[in-house]
Amino acid sequence: MQFDIFTLFxxxxxxxxxxxxxxxxxxxxxxxxxxxxIREWTRDKHHVTDDTPYGGGGGMIMKPEPVFEAVEDVLGxxxxxxxxxxxxxxxxxxxxxxxxxxxxxxxALLCGRYEGLDERIRTHLVTDEISIGDYVLTGGxxxxxxxxxxxxxxxxxxxxxxxxxxxxxxxxGLLEGPHYTRPPEFRGWEIPAVLRSGDHARVAQWRxxxxxxxxxxxxxxxxxxxxxxxxxxxxxxxxxxxx
Length: 243
Ligand code: ADE
Known about the structure:
alpha/beta; Alpha/beta knot; Trp Operon Repressor, Chain A; 2 domains; five-stranded parallel β-sheet; three-stranded mixed β-sheet; 10 strands; binds adenine; EC 2.1.1.228; transferase; tRNA processing; tRNA_MeTrfase_TRMD/TRM10
């Protein structure tokens, strides 16, 4: 999958992109990221990318010309792929949205800065708007990295283990239950005996129940949205879950 990032702060991306799984995904040809500094598409002496708002008020607004020219130069007219604006006004980013966006083989990410951007960028260039949560950051750069991270781990082959992403919290509609590794006892705290039983069916059932239990305790509303088996329902009834 190919990402084209349009930003005024390209320098914040490489440290994260060049670490761990995203680094390996690029080395192995699953992921390509190109950074485009919007400032390079300014034409004035001072490379100005923002201006004061019409009608007054505080804050600075990103000018339309460099943004349009950057995107059109890189992606053509009309642009060859969806143009996603990262903004707190966008639709909320969830695992379902990640799966939907991961069906594209190319995405452009536009990182807003300042108080906002000229509305004509939204109406005539941007094709989708994404928010990573109901809080306001100083810009769309961290949200863009979050989106790339979540989408990259959905690309088949990136995680190595093909089941890796399928069992994640949220992918199944449930939170994952607890995990343990060696040692079997640490400071007197023992791991659940079933995990050492060697009985794969019992382990699988225990994992399912732990996922249901954790979801019931922390995010009960998630249980309304998934299909539950008869066994799941019987287990939840023991927790006094009202079906
Ligand atoms: N830019 C600033 N805040 C943001 C948010 N919550 N999501 C996406 N982009 C943003």
